[in-house]
């Protein structure tokens, strides 16, 4: 849910209005299991036109996947 909230904030929409389900980009359960291993883990993937990075401390960064400027 943290990833969806971060993307929704970045895009200026409600979480319920995001176009694609997160599981189309990454397995949410696998992501949770990976991140449980601690701060030395960072996972980066593309979701809904954005590059999302999340680390083991729960910090989420969202930027345009194509390097362009998006809301």
How is this structure best described in words?
With about 70 residues, this protein is α+β, with helices and mostly antiparallel strands. It has one domain. It has 2 helices and 3 strands, in the order ααβββ. It has a 3-stranded antiparallel sheet with strand order 1-2-3, with helices on one face. A hairpin with a 4-residue loop joins strand 2 and strand 3. The longest helix has 10 residues, at about 1-10. It is globular and about 30 Å long. The two termini are about 20 Å apart. The model has no long low-confidence stretch (mean pLDDT about 85).
Main beta-sheet annotation: 3 strands, antiparallel
Q: What is the terminal-to-terminal distance?
A: 20 Å
Portion of residues in beta strands equals: 15-25%
Read across the widest sheet, the strand sequence of neighbours is 1-2-3
Question: Tags for this entry?
Answer:
single chain, alpha+beta, three-stranded antiparallel sheet, 2 helices, 3 strands
Gist?
The chain is α+β, with helices and mostly antiparallel strands and 71 residues long.
Spell out the blueprint of helices and strands:
Layout: H1 2-11, H2 28-35, E1 42-47, E2 50-55, E3 60-64
Antiparallel strand pairs: 1-2, 2-3
């Amino acid at each position: 849910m943290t990833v969806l909230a971060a993307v929704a904030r970045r895009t200026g929409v409600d979480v319920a209005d995001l176009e694609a389900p997160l599981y189309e980009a990454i397995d949410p359960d696998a992501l949770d299991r990976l991140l449980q291993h601690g701060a030395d883990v960072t996972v980066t993937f593309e979701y809904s036109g954005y590059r999302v990075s999340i680390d083991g401390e729960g910090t989420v960064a969202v930027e345009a996947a194509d390097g362009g400027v998006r809301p």
